[in-house]
Amino acid sequence: MVRPPTARSVVPGPGRLGLVEPGAPDDLRALGWTDADSIELLWALSRAANADLALRSIVRLREGLGEGWAELDARLRVDKPLRGRLFGLLGASAAFADHLAAEPEAWKLLAGEVPAPTRESALEALLGSVQAVPEEGAHRDALLYRAGITGPEAVAILRKTYRDQLMVIAAFDLAATVENEPVIPYQTVGHELSDLADAALTAALSVAVATVCPDKPCPVRLAVIAMGKCGARELNYVSDVDVVFVAEPADACAARIAGEMMRIGSSAFFDVDAALRPEGKAGELVRTLDSHVAYYKRWAKTWEFQALLKARPMTGDMELGRRYDQALSPMVWTASEREDFVPEVQAMRRRVEELVPPELRERELKLGRGSLRDVEFAVQLLQLVHGRADESLHVKSTVDALTALAAGGYVGRDDAANLTASYEFLRLLEHRLQLQKLRRTHTLPPADDEEALRWLARAAHMRPDGTRDALGVLEAEIKRNAHRVRRLHAKLFYRPLLESVARMDKDALRLTSDAAIRQLAALGYTAPENALGHLTALTGGLSRKGRIQALILPNLLESLADTPDPDAGLLAYRRLSDALFDQTWFLRLLRDERAVAERLMRVLGSSAYLADILVNAPEVIRLYADSPSGPRLLETKPEDVARGIATAAARYDDPARAVAAARSLRRYELARVASADVLGMLDVPQVCRALSSVWAAVLGAALTAVVKADEAKRGTEAPATFTVIGMGRLGGYELGYGSDADVLFVCEPREGADETVAVKWANSIADRVRTLLGAPSTDPPLEVDTGLRPEGRSGPMVRTLASYAAYYEQWAQPWEVQALLRATHVTGDRDLGLRFLYMIDHTRYPAGGVSEQAVREIRRIKARVDSERLPRGADPATHTKLGRGGLADIEWTVQLLQLRYASEIQALHNTSTLETLDAIGAAELLAESDVELLRDAWITATKARNALVLVRGKPTDQLPGPGRLLSAVAQVAGWGSDDAGEFLDQYLRVTRRARGVVERVFGE
């Protein structure tokens, strides 16, 4: 609230002072602050973050002081710094109001020319409070003392003294909200809080020494290493203090002293946490220096070296602490050379983001997107990458590291300055939130809690700007800084890379080639030299496209870095950019639609199958955008695609051109379906149905075109009708990306036509269709397989309906009857196709069920398939098609039940494995739990099989062993965890359980 120039003659009312509570007038009268001589006090009070809270707290303080109130009242009227400190503190912190109510004389710590808190003053106060003296015989460089007071009395004294010291820091920090005091920089506050923590644990250690060794000198050298924010001297008001202990010797006495120090510190000051020690909470609390070194050389993970970035000797034997730092520091700066560096860092980043509940992500200052952790993660990663070659980056605090990164040219100076400003703003909000009740919190108040947000705005020095009140300014600043952090987080890694290869800014500091290669390697590129070459090619020259590429590539590269294969993704993006060089919409779309860019990078970095096909079907990329009704990739229906293929092919008289048109639309549909699959927008049945539909449509377009051309050439109607029966997965509409189309060709001579001529004609048509579809192409192949026809590959390719009927009546083998279970009409003459299906129904659904002899034969064939068809060297546990609990196991089991019971249960007359499983469950042929196990295994195996094709770009059925390829398959298969080993374990678990059902049912 701004004081009017003539306010000396007017006593403002409570409303003008920001006092809204009903008791405020009575409180002012009780304090004697209602006359003109109190105006300076009243206007100062009005500027507190919460004037009502400040007034209530002063009334409580008055009651606690009793006769001493007169002294404080008199000082407040003349001591402007005291007013700023006390009112600022009481208006922002209910916790410190409680402290002053309990310890009213502590206000004197804020009065007069109080020196700024220092490490030395904090040590003097805290050590003096427990009468600590230097420990006899301690190393001359040790901060090791022996307290004269121990037990609960020492804890109580330390708690009060620490709270007094913390109050002084907070009062200095908050004074600028009330009086025209200088704003204390965030770094200064962080240093003061860290120095206070050092002093506090030094005092706690002195009590621990006196407790554990009451009658003898301390027999061990014990160093306490600060980690995390305390180690970097950027501590919060309320935070755990992470520590690690080093001792010589690391015996029971050292462990007792360390444990006692933690207990005292956690009781009196803050939580003292030693979980960052080797082996975490399961490890020894105290280790020797040699033991620490041995652990980090042999066992430590990447995140543990990242944690060591901030390690700092804080108290105890400082010489031993410095030896610890000197021994481990070199390992920190070689951590980025580790083979698992990139996946571990990426996994850790994802885990941090997943910790935040979705409803809190926009309010979380520490862990959400655009948060403090984004800044710290990016800065630490850059330090680890470049610090092995540049010692100027060997600093601990985030702000100091940003300054060093800018000075070294690893980050642009403007970007570093902007990121520092946003980081300090977010830390300021975090500090104010914690001061309110001295609780550990990082969460902004809800958007509908205007009172809490308005308090936060005033406590964080927000002032009206002429168009918005303090609350409006705060909300705008939160959005602006979160957006800036998100944007700069992407730029931080990639902008210097691009500046090193593109003519973007002649004054820009650029990475050397070696530094750029280091940075790319650390971001997950296994061939960083090649990646640098791609960046050079994409951004080179002075063209407008090069400038746009340089503008959008930071975000693209960030998205690529989170994919299974960023190298392949970057190469695919370069190929795509080259192929679309003349298409202005492409780069414009990526620039203007962030979601499109992110989805494209995810696809390119995950799927070799799509990387190839998108070059020839780039228009699908437009579908990566969202429409008001949802993702555009899902707006197309398979039946609409089938009609479109038929219509497009019908425009051409030449069969080759008709098939080319059908191929083009198939290519587009494959790219659409596969993209939606990789992006997690389609489930397994939807994918299979869409792939089967497009296969049937292309087959139909080819057949129609060939027959049409033949009739035009003949000048007369064809001698026979012709239909195509889908078999196998095509018949069940359960095709995968790598599936062939199993079919039967059926013809029927027209009335008056010679059967021999008709069959010969039909064979020529079938051969022409297969040749056209199987012609060499850059698209995924279109192989038509007729191996399931009567007599197999030795039999005629096309038969008449009557010939099929005679064969199945006399000669059908059990495996052929089984194959017919999935027969369905897919294209060609519909009437003929339906008559074929009616004809085979009595063969595939025999009255009374299949004979026991046929069942034995089917079991024998299945056993032979298991032993002979599995490729040499394949692992039967992880072969998705023929392995244990794989697709063949499930399908043969389902088909055996159909053969036995379909004559009685009409619902089993179904070519789909999943739908038949539903019918089996409904008919109670199997327990529902068994049905679910079989269904789960079929979906899991199909998903894995499809993911294998998407990742590798070619058909394959064998899951790889642990490694990068398995990680890629796991991600494309929708596995939510970062651990591909868990995906493999889940696959083995599901298929093993299904195999148990198969052995019980199929081998019954």
Automatic annotation (TrEMBL):
Enzyme Commission identifier(s):
2.7.7.89, 2.7.7.42
Its recorded reaction(s) are: [glutamine synthetase]-O(4)-(5'-adenylyl)-L-tyrosine + phosphate = [glutamine synthetase]-L-tyrosine + ADP; [glutamine synthetase]-L-tyrosine + ATP = [glutamine synthetase]-O(4)-(5'-adenylyl)-L-tyrosine + diphosphate
A Pfam family: GlnD_UR_UTase
Domain Glutamate-ammonia ligase adenylyltransferase repeated as annotated: residue spans: 85-325, 598-837
Q: Which residues form a coiled coil?
A: none
The organism sits in which domain of life? Bacteria
Segments carrying the region annotation (Adenylyl transferase) are 505-1004
The family database entries (InterPro entries) matched by this protein are listed as:
GlnE, GlnE_rpt_dom, NT_sf, PII_UdlTrfase/GS_AdlTrfase
Q: Which residues form the PII-uridylyltransferase/Glutamine-synthetase adenylyltransferase domain?
A: 347-493, 877-1001
Sequence segments annotated as region (Adenylyl removase): 1-497
Q: Name one GO cellular component term.
A: cytosol
Q: Does the keyword Magnesium apply?
A: yes
Q: Does the keyword Membrane apply?
A: no
Q: Which GO terms describe its molecular function?
A: [glutamate-ammonia-ligase] adenylyltransferase activity; [glutamine synthetase]-adenylyl-L-tyrosine phosphorylase activity; ATP binding; ligase activity; magnesium ion binding
Cofactor (UniProt): Mg(2+)
**GO biological process annotation, one example:** regulation of glutamine family amino acid metabolic process
* Keyword annotations of the record: ATP-binding, Ligase, Magnesium, Multifunctional enzyme, Nucleotide-binding, Nucleotidyltransferase, Transferase
Xref: PANTHER family: BIFUNCTIONAL GLUTAMINE SYNTHETASE ADENYLYLTRANSFERASE_ADENYLYL-REMOVING ENZYME (PTHR30621:SF0), GLUTAMINE SYNTHETASE ADENYLYLTRANSFERASE (PTHR30621)
Q: What does this protein do?
A: Involved in the regulation of glutamine synthetase GlnA, a key enzyme in the process to assimilate ammonia. When cellular nitrogen levels are high, the C-terminal adenylyl transferase (AT) inactivates GlnA by covalent transfer of an adenylyl group from ATP to specific tyrosine residue of GlnA, thus reducing its activity. Conversely, when nitrogen levels are low, the N-terminal adenylyl removase (AR) activates GlnA by removing the adenylyl group by phosphorolysis, increasing its activity.
Instruction: Report the sequence similarity comment from the record.
Output: Belongs to the GlnE family.
- The name under which this protein is listed is Bifunctional glutamine synthetase adenylyltransferase/adenylyl-removing enzyme
Q: Which organism is it from?
A: Rhodococcus triatomae
